[in-house]
Specification:
binds FE(4)-NI(1)-S(4) cluster, 45% helix, 510 residues, 6-stranded parallel β-sheet, Rossmann fold, globular, alpha/beta, 13% strand, 3 domains, Substrate Binding Domain Of Dnak, Chain:A, Domain 2
Length: 510
């Protein structure tokens, strides 16, 4: 296996796997079912194989987001709230999901449903690919409420809502002359504890920086600079100036362990489900653990700093500035005004740019979003928000940074409120979610969630559904019939823009 950086390891891709046509669900196989007329050893059709793979993707994504919220509940020693979806979702959607069997049988036992999604895709279980696809949408609903909404709500309650500020981003936020501690992953429990500790006096020598979604949340809540998104995470260590990298869960590339061996950097893990060889491990179960670990990690980082040879950058990386810290309640316009502007066509609609930055995608999406921002407003989260910031687009006027990926709940909430005020259903409003460069299963689950709300969802990468017309048609007709939404692939930014210019976003305001 090649070492080196992500771009050097990308190598050739398995196009059969990419199209979802490889079934690894039993030991009669793995079977590749390349032609639509072919079957797997068990007799599974190509449609079934692709649908099961898609469901496993969506279920894993939902498991990650629901796991995030569950870790918060566990930390707070709380149970999942009763009737949560009912209390958060628009009534008409709740009723529809209920009628279609997209809600958990017992609401607080949503993890059972994720487990059932794995169950029904095992050898010789569900053979009806259309029913399997319906489960993908179910995973979207669970992901949205028991993942995105619940995690965002609990974190806002415990750690406070973000506030609007000018934030700093990119590798240039690392300060070689200081003790640099990077916080990477998605959850906020430890990140908040060390932020509180560093804010106490006598810690001026410490420079905290964020990576990926843990970083995006810290940036939004506290203005802690965000050093990197997913594709730049290795570069954080490769500056040679980061003393400790603390990680929680998700999007933490295993390559970081190899890389840390080449530098003085120590990796620290804080969650039982995310262990890394040779890392220090401080499992955080409660506030006391978090505070003790924070103090210990600061001490360790200071010792490592003393032994660090490099006290300046080899080449000074750039630093960017961006307006950050928006949420559903602090946008610079009232929801009512926004709904009016949309109705009067002064704003043609809202486009949410979400998800990862996938280095396999070479197209220039930024230029197209910039062009569209003359007529549309943009919300953004996660690694794409970082990318938009790198290009100087996060101005707090047309582009609004809404935080981490679980904070896509904030975008869903704005969609819900704008349509409620406009007295329409969500699918009647000109909203679009665009995920141009997905990497993780979570991005797919988020897409399913927005589609279940009635929002059209665009993916700019050719994955799973692309090679199978029956699957694509079946999802399309289910979504169209029940939610009047669609999930579509468009890999070319120019065509994406032409399509929007020609067709506009789904709306009754034509
Ligand atoms: Fe994707 Fe979420 Fe991960 Fe970045 S960090 S790679 S999921 S955009 Ni959230």
């Amino acid at each position: 296996m090649k070492r080196g950086f992500l771009s050097q390891r990308l190598g050739n891709q398995c196009f059969i796997g990419l199209q979802g046509k490889c079934c690894k669900n039993c030991l009669l196989g793995p079977c590749i079912v390349v032609k639509n007329s072919e079957k797997g050893a068990c007799g599974a059709s190509q449609d079934l194989v692709v649908a099961r793979n898609l469901l496993r993707f969506a279920a894993a994504g939902a498991a990650a987001h629901c796991g995030h919220a569950f870790h918060m509940l566990d930390y707070l020693k709380k149970e999942c709230p009763e009737d949560y979806i009912k209390r958060r979702a628009p009534v008409y959607l709740y009723e529809k999901w209920k009628k279609l069997g997209l809600l958990p049988k017992k609401e607080t036992e949503y993890f059972k449903e994720i487990s059932e999604a794995l169950h029904l895709t095992t050898f010789g279980c569900n053979a009806d690919y259309e029913d399997v696809l319906r489960w993908c949408i179910k995973m979207g609903v669970l992901d949205g409420y028991y993942g995105l909404y619940l995690a965002t709500e609990l974190e806002d309650k415990i750690f406070g809502k973000p506030s609007v500020r000018i934030g700093e981003l990119n590798l240039g936020v690392i300060k070689p002359e200081k003790v640099n501690i990077a916080l990477h992953g998605h959850e906020q429990i430890f990140a908040e504890a060390i932020t509180r500790e560093v804010k106490r006096k006598d810690n001026e020598d410490i420079n905290l920086i964020g990576v990926c979604c843990t970083g995006a949340s810290l940036l939004a809540r506290h203005g802690i600079p965000l050093a990197a998104n997913v594709v730049l995470q290795e570069q954080v260590i490769a500056t040679g100036c980061v003393d400790v990298l603390v990680v929680d869960v998700q999007c933490i590339m295993p390559s970081l362990a190899d890389l840390a061996e080449c530098y003085h950097t120590k990796i620290v893990t804080t969650n039982e489900i995310c262990r890394i060889p040779n890392a220090l491990h401080f499992p955080i179960k409660n506030k006391r653990d978090a505070e003790q670990a924070a103090r210990q990690i600061i001490r360790t980082a200071r010792i490592l700093f003393k032994h660090r040879k490099r006290k300046e950058f080899v080449t000074k990386p750039e630093k960017k500035r961006a307006v950050v810290g928006f949420h559903e309640k602090n946008l610079p316009f009232e929801i009512k005004k926004l709904a009016e502007k949309i109705k009067e066509r002064k704003i043609k609609g809202i486009i949410a740019v979400i998800g990862c930055e996938n280095p396999r995608v070479k197209e220039d999406w930024i230029r197209v979003y910039k062009e569209l921002s003359k007529e549309y407003i943009f919300f953004t989260t996660g690694c794409m928000a970082f990318k938009l910031a790198q290009f100087g687009l996060l101005d707090g006027k047309r582009f609004f940074h809404m935080g981490s990926c679980v904070n896509n709940a904030r975008i869903a909430e704005v969609f819900k409120e704008v349509s409620r005020v406009a007295k329409h259903e969500i699918h009647e409003m000109p909203f679009l979610v665009s995920c141009p460069m997905p990497i993780t299963e979570k991005a797919i689950a988020i897409g399913m969630f927005f589609a279940s709300l009635g929002v059209d969802v665009h993916f700019g990468y050719n994955f799973l559904v692309s090679g199978d017309l029956n699957i694509a048609n079946s999802i399309a007709s289910f979504l169209k019939k029940e939610f009047k939404s669609k999930v579509f692939l468009e890999m070319l930014p120019r065509r994406f823009m032409e399509r929007i210019e020609k067709e506009g976003l789904a709306t009754i305001y034509k």
